[in-house]
Design brief:
This protein is an alpha/beta fold. It contains 14 helices and six strands. Helix 5 packs across helix 8. About 3% of the residues have low confidence.
Length: 332
């Protein structure tokens, strides 16, 4: 009887574990991906600054502590442009949603998606991103400095720019079948032209370091975990893009639709939010009280676990820091 009881208990534990396992998709079809974007997104809003790259030089510093707090898997939520790729490659989530009030940010992520998918290597990627031909062969084990050096500091190639721009639009509209609006296409023109004109030595935000220097930043232990630091990191993000598992959404953190739709999707797949990178967005929605309350309710609608963690950023030298999401909800 004792043996039978032990066997039954073990069986129940296995069945419980199977039942609790998430059902997040291993990949998403183009049609489903585009439907999620359209169905979950809100009307786009404005932001005070143009932000086509991160201006948070310290954004990697929290990674050693964060990796001790959370385990791979689950769902990653984020905001803003390319810094999310570094967090994603470090955290290894099963799926990611990038939620930003600016429709331009969603369009930029689609531009990035096309560049990742069209570029088998890091060298191909940076060459396409900045419309500059590589003047030397860069191997898969090359450092970030070695990766960027063959791009040079001169002007981009106008012919390459036009070819790449057309290829991006064809890839998104024809290969994937995404129905971009005229405004979306103009946004791609504008954003991609900024990278072409500025090159790797430019800052694509009002305040911040250059793109190339940002790729050289390290975590608190002196390790660079950037998505371009190694072929392994780059390929992880590229594969997620190819599987349509990095989904950009237009939404206000305190809005009525986007956050709740993302939360409902995660819950329906029996999954949980592992990390939510909110940057300093909370500074902009802290008042009036009704807006902050709406944000609190939206966070409360997300499926969390005891380890779910915020990544926040503070101006004035504070930099990046972590906060547990469950304890936030108790005082929000």
């Amino acid at each position: 009887m004792r043996l039978l009881f032990t066997c039954l208990t073990a069986t129940l534990l296995v069945l419980t574990a199977v039942h609790a396992a998430d059902t997040l998709p291993a990949s998403i079809s183009d049609q489903a991906f585009w439907k999620i974007i359209n169905d979950f997104s809100e009307e786009g809003g404005d932001f005070a600054f143009e932000m086509f790259m991160s201006n948070e030089a310290s954004f990697q510093t929290i990674l050693p502590e964060l990796l001790n707090r959370v385990t791979p898997g689950g769902v990653y939520l984020g905001v803003a442009p390319e810094q999310n790729f570094t967090y994603i490659t470090a955290l290894r989530p099963k799926m990611a949603f990038i939620i930003d009030i600016r429709r331009e940010n969603m369009v930029e992520h689609l531009m990035y998606k096309a560049l990742f998918e069209m570029s088998p290597t890091r060298a191909d990627f940076v060459s396409r991103l900045f419309s500059r031909k590589m003047t030397a062969v860069v191997g898969p084990q090359a450092s970030v400095d070695t990766l960027f050096a063959p791009l040079g500091s001169g002007r981009g190639n106008p012919q390459l720019f036009q070819e790449n721009l057309q290829a991006i639009k064809i890839h998104l509209q024809k290969t994937h079948g995404f129905t971009l609006t005229a405004r979306d296409l103009r946004a791609i023109d504008y954003i991609y032209n900024e990278f072409f004109r500025g090159g790797p030595g430019a800052s694509f935000t009002v305040y911040g370091t250059s793109y190339q220097l940002l790729m050289r930043q390290t975590d608190a232990q002196g390790r660079n975990r950037n998505f371009l630091v190694s072929d392994t990191n780059y390929q992880f993000v590229r594969q997620m893009q190819q599987k349509n598992l990095i989904v950009p959404i237009v939404g206000d953190f305190a809005g009525p639709k986007a956050m709740r739709a993302v939360g409902s999707y995660i819950r329906a797949h029996q999954a949980e939010v592992s990390v939510f990178y909110v940057s300093n967005v909370e500074e902009y929605i802290s008042s009036p009280r009704s807006v902050w309350s709406a944000y609190c309710r939206n966070i409360g609608a997300l499926p969390l676990n005891a380890r779910s963690t915020f990544i926040r950023f503070g101006r004035g030298g504070r930099g990046s820091w972590l906060d547990p999401m469950p304890s936030f909800l108790k005082t929000c």
